[in-house]
Amino acid sequence: MSSIRKIPILDLKLADDPAKRGLLLDQLRDALFNVGFLYICNHGVPQDIIDALSSKLPTLFHLPQQRKRELSKTKSPHFLGFSDYAQETTQGKLDLREQYDIATELPEVYQKDATPNERGRDFSKLFVHLVEEAFSIPIGTFDSFFNKNSDSAVSDSTTASDFLSPQHRLRFNFYPAMPPEQEGQGVGPHKDMAGWLTFLHQVGTERALDVQDRDGSWIPVDPIPGTLVVNLGYAFEAATEGAARATVHRVRARSQKDRYSIPFFMGLPLDLKLSEVQNVIPESVRAMRRKELENGEWAIDKKIETFLDPRWDSIGESVLRRFIRGYKKTALKYYGQEVY
Q1: What residue stretches are annotated with the Fe2OG dioxygenase domain (predicted)?
Q2: At what angle do helices 18-30 and 118-134 cross, to 10 degrees?
C-alpha cells in the first residue's frame, strides 16, 4: 500500500474539456482509493460569497456568551445549535473550540430558505457525478439517495433539490487563540461519521488541519486560496467496504490568532440502509481491499465493522451513536443514561 505523499489538488474545470476529463477522473480515482482527502479548485462557488460568509464569523462568535447559549445544542434532540467551548469530546478528550451546527428540522422551512445556497448546488452535483464516473457506474446512480422520492436512480436529468436532503449539515467552527508555546486539541483524531462527503473552507492562513498517513505520521492540510478541502465520510468508506478511504484527521489548537472554518457535511437520508448504498457500488470496487485483507497488508477499521453492524439498521442509527458519544450533556438530556 502506498503512503500519502501529499494532498492532491484537482481542478474541476478539467471536467469541461473532453480531452482532459479522463485525466481528472484518474486523479479523482487515486484520491478516493489511496488518500481520502483532496483539494478542489474552480469548484463554481463564487469567492465573494465565501468571503462574505467568512467575514461574519468573528461577529457571530464574539456575541455575548448568554446570547449564544440561547441557541444551545442542549436544547435540540437533533444535536443542532451552539456548542460552548470544550463541550465536545473526541477520543475521550475535550475539543478546544466553539461551534454552531445548522441543518433542517422542518423541511418546509428549509425549502423556503434554500435560495442562498443555489450557487453551491452545481459544484456538489458535478462532484458527485464525477465520483460515479470514477467508480465506473452510471451517472445519476447516487441521485436517489439524496432524494428518496426520485423515480430513477440512474438519470442525469436531476434537479438541484436532489442534493438538498434535510440531513445535510453546515457547521461554523471557532478555535480561540492559544497562548504562546501551548498546543491543545482543536478536534481529536477522527473520521467524519455524519456525512457522505465533507466540503471544508479554511478561513485565513492559520495551519491546523492534519491527516494521518498509513504509517501513523501526520501530514498538514494547509489552507490554499481558492480551494475547498474534500474528504470522505464513514458511510462512504463502509459502503465501498474500505476501497475508498475515510482518512483519520485532526485539528491542532496552536495558533496565537483566532481561527475559523466552515465544513459542509453532505449526508444521506437517515432512514437509508447501508445495504441500499452498497448494492450500487460495483463488486469490482468493493472487492479491492479483500486481497490485501487476506494477505495481511491492510486491516479494516473496527469502526467500519461497527458501522456495518446489523443491529444498527440504518445510517441514521450509526450517526446518532456518534453524536451521543460526542455530546454527552445533550445525549443524557434526551436519550438517558441507558445510551451509555
Answers
A1: 162-268
A2: 80
Q: How many residues does the chain have?
A: 340
Q: Cα 205 vs. chain centroid, distance in angstroms?
A: 21
15 secondary structure, DSSP code: G
Position 135 scores a pLDDT of 87
Sign of CA dihedral 14, 131, 229, 143: positive
Beta bridge partners of 258: none
pLDDT, one tens digit per residue, over 41-62 is: 999 899 999 999 999 999 999 9
CATH no. of 9-339: 2.60.120.330
The b-or-e profile of 105-137 (16+ CB within 10 A means b, else e) is eeeeebeeeeeebeebbebbbbbbbbbbbbbeb
pTM: 0.86
Tell me how far the alpha carbon of residue 258 is from its chain's centroid: 23
Which residues are registered as beta bridge partners of 100? 82, 172
Closest by CA to 114, choosing from 168, 43, 61, 72, is 168
Which cell is 288 given? 479491492
User: What torsion, rounded to 10 degrees, do the Cα atoms 84, 265, 225, 120 define?
Assistant: -120
| Per-residue pLDDT reduced to its tens digit, 234-247 | 888 888 878 888 99
Which distant-in-sequence residues (6+ apart) come within 8 Å of 119 by Cβ?
44, 45, 46, 49
C-alpha distances in Å from residue 55, one per residue of 49, 60, 124, 259? 10, 10, 23, 12
CA distance 260 to 56: 11
Residue 147 grid coordinates: 432524494
Residue 294 pLDDT:
65
The mean predicted confidence, pLDDT, of the chain is 82
* In the chain, domain spans: 9-339
